[in-house]
Task: structure prediction
Amino acid sequence: MLVLGIESSCDESGIALYDTETGLLGHALHTQIAMHAEYGGVVPELASRDHIRRILPLTRQVLTQAQRQLSDLDAIAYTEGPGLAGALLVGTGIAHAMGVALNIPVLGVHHLEGHLLSPLLSSEPPEFPFVALLVSGGHSQLMHVTGIGEYTLLGDTLDDAAGEAFDKTAQLLGLPYPGGAALSKLAETGNAQRFRLPRPMLHSGDLNFSFSGLKTAVLTLSQKNPQTTDYADIAAAFQLAMTDVLSSKSLAALKATRSKRLVVAGGVGANKQLRAALQHATQKIGAKVYFPEMEFCTDNGAMIAFAGAMRLKHSGKTAGTFTVRPRWDLASVVAPQTIS
Ligand code: KG4
Ligand code: ZN
Result:
């Protein structure tokens, strides 16, 4: 079964072709970062208009690369939510129009399910069950995953998401949007031991997170230490605090679920220090950590094509309704077998 995946939830248009027999045949991405950077964040209307410009040319590009034609497609999977309503509507509209024209099923996919399953696209995929640490621009969640569509929420953020905390802190330090990667680069040149930032909720006894206080601590510290060299040290201290909290809660989630497999997904999963810390921490307790390929950490079409293909493979059914869900709780997603 050949599935076209369309991702358009935020500031990246991602297209991919996934074959359930042979795997990923091709993928392409257009990032709008340069367009939004001058405004310091995503401008939703500009995002929607750009998705309109990009999705069809990217689809043609991927089909040509994979030496396939539109008529070869068996189904189309698109991001139904969560995300920006206008941006989601573009992908949803195109997917449904193509579905009608080609007379093939279309399937709305939960964006976070895409992220969560993205490590399964790698050469050494994890087996179920596992604990997933989902750390993106909009979410910071720990989930217990026992199968496709079987997700139990273990912990969530009470305020800012991990990526949001990286982005806001980066902004405070004068770095361009989106700040996560830029902050991480600056941190490499800093001394993480010079300043000690708080580790919010480290000992809260649950698996929840809170990052807004950390951002405020950075604000105070950066006002007291305004030199460029100070900023590198602050960035390093911030990254270390984030890494400490994310690894400690992930280990607690493994313990609580008696699991030996941790899957990390979402844009913050691209953070090198977090990757190294989780490798080290899981190894120490005889567990294993799995990451998506670097290119599939941030938003992409491959994870949507893959999640859609897995759902179709398990149930053969599509929801079929034209809808977007800008706010959508991942724990409310059901397993494909139970879709009626
Ligand atoms: O998963 P994603 O592409 O989009 C959402 O679904 O939100 O995640 C984007 C987030 C941004 O907040 C970005 O700053 C962060 O991931 N990010 C990073 C790194 N690369 C991207 N955060 C820390 N370190 C990185 N290397
Ligand atoms: Zn995402």
